[in-house]
């Protein structure tokens, strides 16, 4: 074999071995958020082992925000990031955060106006909110068993294969989601006004059990359209009314399905007087509590 080719192969193998060794060493040196208050992501002093960053050739350590503190990100990257123990990660206005896998285990993830998070995987088991003009770009998949809401956008690249709405998952507000494959497991909750589920042409959907539709914000009687999956591929077969359950205090009605379009005919909703009495009651309770404290 040509000596130059041998030297080139030897160099490549040496670099790959060095990268693997470097990754193995750094993987044991995870970095933890140490600020129990609020601090900036890019300040070394807020981390036990330096600011997280992700470079395949240099660093493979995981990052943890799990001490109850809050990290504010204007720009940052990571390999694997865990937000836990009522801690908070906030992507600032027009901020940017990129990485491989983001696990919101038991904290809060908030993307403010114009902020952007770009990851391979987002696993949300707690509370994630995407603000106005905020965006989450996902390259592989999204798993959700917590609260996923806001008015921003979650969008997938051409590589994304699935959004998995697990039991007790709550898809809220008017969040826009453009992923190609949806899995609804039994007990997942959807706010009825969520526009992500309307006009979903060309996507694949699998229903694994009963889905709860939350009509708490419904104020008028009569029929409303909840879902329009007429242009989607329903892998588990055509949808039927008995696959859905309504939720919302004071709301009553029945579901109907036409050509994979789901409708809800509300026969009872909370009356305006009910909301007035509830507000008055809460106000009186707050006043009584304040008087007792004083």
List keywords for this structure.
alpha/beta; about 290 residues; 3-stranded antiparallel beta sheet; single chain; 20-stranded parallel beta sheet; about 15% helix
Q: What can you tell me about this protein's structure?
A:
By secondary structure, the chain is an alpha/beta fold. The chain has one domain (3-293). It is built from 2 helices and 23 strands. The strands form 2 sheets. It has a 20-stranded parallel sheet that branches. Strands 19-23-22 form a 3-stranded antiparallel sheet, with no helix packed on it. The longest helix has 25 residues, at 3-27.
Tell me briefly what this model is:
This protein is an alpha/beta fold and 294 residues long.
Quickly count the domains.
Answer: 1
Q: Residue ranges: pLDDT <50 for 5 or more in a row?
A: 4-9, 11-27
Total strand count, please? 23
Main sheet record = 20 strands, parallel
Order of helices and strands: HEEEEEEEEEEEEEEEEEEEEEEEH
The Cα radius of gyration reads 24 Å
Counting DSSP H or I runs of 4 or more residues, the number of helices is: 2
